Amino acid sequence: MQLGLDVDVQKLETDKWRKGKNKAEEDLDSLKMDYKKLCRSIRTAGLGKMLEQW
Known about the structure:
Layout: H1 2-45, H2 47-53
């Protein structure tokens, strides 16, 4: 019986880690998209050349 409980606990912990990993990957993807949008906006506004001069 104890072994069965240990397996259940390990499954729950694995699911918890997996969900956390998926959330972290989603957050990373979101940050990458925001970064790309920001770079595109800077390029469109022509601020990139001004920043390089500094």
